[in-house]
């Protein structure tokens, strides 16, 4: 153990800096660093010797030792920079550095798969005359639940515990598609996440019927999944529509053969969204006369659509930030 005293520290620092100034290669610098600053380096051993001093001496000499360490580290950084600059200068003088060569291409980012599918969904509806609008990410309870026919204490609040609201700032005719984030009290697994995106749609006008709903969603499914897709509607319950339906497409993974299919689970059908005719109470709640206007609404999860379209088996992949997954899109 090297004795820790001011003279030893001063002598060691001077000798180290003098040796450093004479070095001319990065390999020699690394050996110098190990000799003085490494785990068994000379200055490191001095610092270990502080443990044998009383508190006052340890504080005084410890400060000197730390100053010496900073001086050596600063000297190493400066000498490394000088050697690198000298190497570049020699390369240029020897004409080994061709400044006319094209630069290295920077890696380009890409759109997240959720962003890609949201844009595909919006483009499909824009082609049918819908406008894309965005609402607030956090909404008042009144707009989020009560105006959607979900009063206080209604059990459906447990089903629709999300922070999204209804488009209400436009007089009919209304044809809007609204992408945005959702947050729910949800146990996460391969098909459920506590945060995700949702795309909602609303059309309100005079004379809108269920046939308009079916025709619009038929066209959407075929634009996104292919012209050969078959569509199925089944009755379902949503507080803000009446009647309500879930919409499914025939399974494109097994072509209806079903047996052993992980995508449709042997049913031959894949549910892609919920929809229905807007409930008269919801229309009245936003100031539309339900005796004059009718409309339809629908909602879908883009991540689920992407999972179906690309055969993704776990929704948690979307937000795990794993480049091996993201680079596939």
From TrEMBL:
Its EC number is 6.1.1.20. It is an enzyme of class 6 (ligase). It is found in: Cytoplasm. GO terms for biological process: phenylalanyl-tRNA aminoacylation. Its cofactor is Mg(2+). Pfam families: Phe_tRNA-synt_N, tRNA-synt_2d. Its main location: cytoplasm. The keyword Metal-binding applies. It comes from the Eukaryota. GO terms for cellular component: cytoplasm. Keywords: Aminoacyl-tRNA synthetase, ATP-binding, Cytoplasm, Ligase, Magnesium, Metal-binding, Nucleotide-binding, Protein biosynthesis. GO terms for molecular function: ATP binding; metal ion binding; phenylalanine-tRNA ligase activity; tRNA binding. It catalyses: tRNA(Phe) + L-phenylalanine + ATP = L-phenylalanyl-tRNA(Phe) + AMP + diphosphate + H(+). Residues 173-328 form the Aminoacyl-transfer RNA synthetases class-II family profile domain. Belongs to the class-II aminoacyl-tRNA synthetase family. Phe-tRNA synthetase alpha subunit type 1 subfamily. Tetramer of two alpha and two beta subunits. PANTHER family: PHENYLALANINE--TRNA LIGASE, MITOCHONDRIAL, PHENYLALANYL-TRNA SYNTHETASE. This is Phenylalanine--tRNA ligase alpha subunit. It comes from Geodia barretti (Barrett's horny sponge).
């Amino acid at each position: 153990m090297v004795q820790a005293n001011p003279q030893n520290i001063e002598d060691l620092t001077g000798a180290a800096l003098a040796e450093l100034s004479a070095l001319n290669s990065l390999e020699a610098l690394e050996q110098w660093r190990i000799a003085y600053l490494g785990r068994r380096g000379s200055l490191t051993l001095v610092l270990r010797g502080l443990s044998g001093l009383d508190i006052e001496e340890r504080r005084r000499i410890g400060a000197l030792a730390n100053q010496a360490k900073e001086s050596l580290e600063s000297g190493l950084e400066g000498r490394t920079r000088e050697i690198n600059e000298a190497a570049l200068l020699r390369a240029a003088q020897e004409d080994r550095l061709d400044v006319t060569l094209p630069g290295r291409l920077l890696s380009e980012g890409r759109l997240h798969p959720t962003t890609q599918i949201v844009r595909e969904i919006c483009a499909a509806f824009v082609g049918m005359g819908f406008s894309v609008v965005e609402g607030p990410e956090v909404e008042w309870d009144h707009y989020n639940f009560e105006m959607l026919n979900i009063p206080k204490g209604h059990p459906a609040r447990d089903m629709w515990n999300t922070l999204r609201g209804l488009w209400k700032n436009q007089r009919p005719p209304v044809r809007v598609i609204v992408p945005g984030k959702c947050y729910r009290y949800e146990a996460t697994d391969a098909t459920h996440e506590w945060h995700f995106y949702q795309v909602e749609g609303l059309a309100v006008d005079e004379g809108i019927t269920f046939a308009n709903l079916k025709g619009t969603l038929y066209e959407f499914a075929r634009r996104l999944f292919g012209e050969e897709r078959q569509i199925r509607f089944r009755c379902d319950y949503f507080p803000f529509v009446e009647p309500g339906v879930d919409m499914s497409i025939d399974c494109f993974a097994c072509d209806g053969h079903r047996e052993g299919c992980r995508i449709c689970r042997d049913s031959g059908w894949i549910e892609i969204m919920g929809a229905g005719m807007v409930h008269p109470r919801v229309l009245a709640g936003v100031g539309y006369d339900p005796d004059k206007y009718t409309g339809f609404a629908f909602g879908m999860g883009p991540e689920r659509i992407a999972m179906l379209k690309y055969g993704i088996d776990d929704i948690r992949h979307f937000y795990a930030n794993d480049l091996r997954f993201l680079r596939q899109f």
